[in-house]
Recover the amino acids of this structure.
């Protein structure tokens, strides 16, 4: 993992093939940047009341970050605004030097998935979707949008999917793993039915504010613990989608876990299979071992990548997870992003690098 500090120059990628970056985070320039996409009612609501989340800290996440806005020191645009808010600067610092062929935008601001005022959540989701197209995709043909929905209001989520899916620049539907209920619950199934019908994968990105502690033992004391705890959302989502029968009912549903890691997947699948072999009568709706659903329906972005001390251990991890399941991502412009030059702490052949950095995403997103 490469943390890029202020003053370090960007260097062209070594591969001439170019990359597909499956996790880029855009931000609005200021609090009123979404106003052109919000009705007057919701503009006034945003200014007067703001969001209503499942936590007491309205204007911040649960724990202060190690850097402002969780971002690189050199990612602040020279013309003003927060990191990720200036397309020209993103092009200069990231898209152009690293030969990004396609970049998938994943907006994390606004906490749409956690907004308790569902009318406001619906308005925010629509605004963020229209903002991605108008301010980013229309201005750079390399960029693709992630379809934001109010996940706790599945009926409205389906309507938003139906509205946006006809624009092929939306390539996935975003859900948050820290949800008010496990995502496999039947209340969420209309979203999965629509996703399968429109052939749009789910992009389940780490975090979310579901109102529950981030660990099974309560709230941790340190940001380091909170940062690690994001990985715990992966097994929780995977188990719920498998065990509740979502992937049996919607076999063509594709799920990519974004910024949740992947080294935990093999051992977790083994454990689920062992439990299923002795307790399968509790879940008669499953027709195959859990690991088969996992292998068929799940993919993973590479950032943050676990880094064992020996490169052969990382290669073994890739073998166990599946080379065809890994989608390259940087997490730009966050402080812990992966620099495409140094992301893999092991030797890769040209074919292996091309598969992970480009070809897997081309197949997954049908580019």
């Amino acid at each position: 993992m490469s943390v890029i500090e202020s003053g370090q120059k960007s260097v062209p990628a070594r591969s001439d093939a170019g990359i597909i970056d499956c996790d880029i985070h855009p931000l609005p320039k200021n609090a009123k940047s979404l106003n052109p996409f919000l009705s007057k009612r919701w503009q006034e609501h945003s200014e007067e009341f703001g969001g209503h989340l499942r936590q007491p800290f309205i204007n911040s996440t649960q724990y202060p970050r190690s850097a402002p806005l969780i971002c690189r020191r050199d990612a602040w645009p020279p013309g003003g605004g927060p990191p990720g808010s200036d397309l020209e600067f993103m092009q200069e610092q990231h898209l152009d030097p690293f030969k990004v062929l396609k970049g998938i935008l994943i907006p994390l601001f606004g906490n749409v998935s956690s907004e308790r005022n569902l009318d406001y959540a619906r308005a925010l989701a629509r605004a963020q979707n229209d903002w991605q197209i108008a301010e980013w995709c229309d201005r750079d043909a390399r960029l693709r949008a992630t379809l934001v929905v109010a996940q706790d209001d599945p009926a409205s989520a389906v309507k938003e999917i139906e509205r946006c899916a006809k624009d092929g620049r939306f390539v996935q539907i975003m859900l948050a793993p820290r949800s008010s209920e496990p995502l496999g619950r039947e209340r969420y199934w209309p979203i999965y039915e629509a996703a399968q019908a429109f052939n749009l994968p789910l992009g389940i990105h780490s975090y979310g504010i579901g109102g529950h502690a981030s660990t099974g033992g309560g709230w941790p004391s340190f940001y380091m613990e909170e940062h690690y705890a994001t990985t715990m959302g992966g097994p929780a989502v995977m188990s719920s989608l498998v065990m509740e029968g979502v992937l049996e009912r919607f076999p063509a549903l594709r799920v990519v876990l974004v910024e949740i890691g992947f080294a935990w997947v093999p051992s977790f699948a083994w454990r689920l299979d062992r439990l299923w072999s002795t307790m399968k009568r509790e879940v008669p709706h499953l027709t195959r071992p859990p690991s088969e659903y996992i292998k068929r329906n799940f993919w993973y972005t590479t950032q943050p990548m676990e880094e064992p001390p020996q490169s052969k251990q990382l290669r073994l991890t890739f073998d166990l997870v599946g080379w065809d399941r890994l989608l390259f991502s940087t997490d730009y412009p966050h402080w812990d992003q992966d620099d495409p030059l140094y992301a893999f702490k092991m030797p890769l052949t040209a074919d292996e690098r091309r598969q992970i950095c480009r070809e897997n995403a081309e197949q997954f997103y049908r580019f």
Observations:
- Residues 1-14 have pLDDT under 50 and may be disordered.
